[in-house]
Amino acid sequence: MTIEARIRELGNRHRSLDETIQQEMRRPTADPTHLRELKQRKLRLKEEITSLETRAH
Hints:
Order of helices and strands: HH
Strand content: under 5%
Shape: elongated
Low-confidence stretches: none
Largest sheet: none
Helix content: over 70%
């Protein structure tokens, strides 16, 4: 898999996690622990994407 393809895959996962977070936040009984875990996963994906983009250029 090329770096560009990996970046696209991670970007898709990042967007999907963002949608999941938004859905969770709209729930009246949103679980703060679950939200924190989702946000941490999203941040790790963003950091990996940034790292790969730096290596690609």
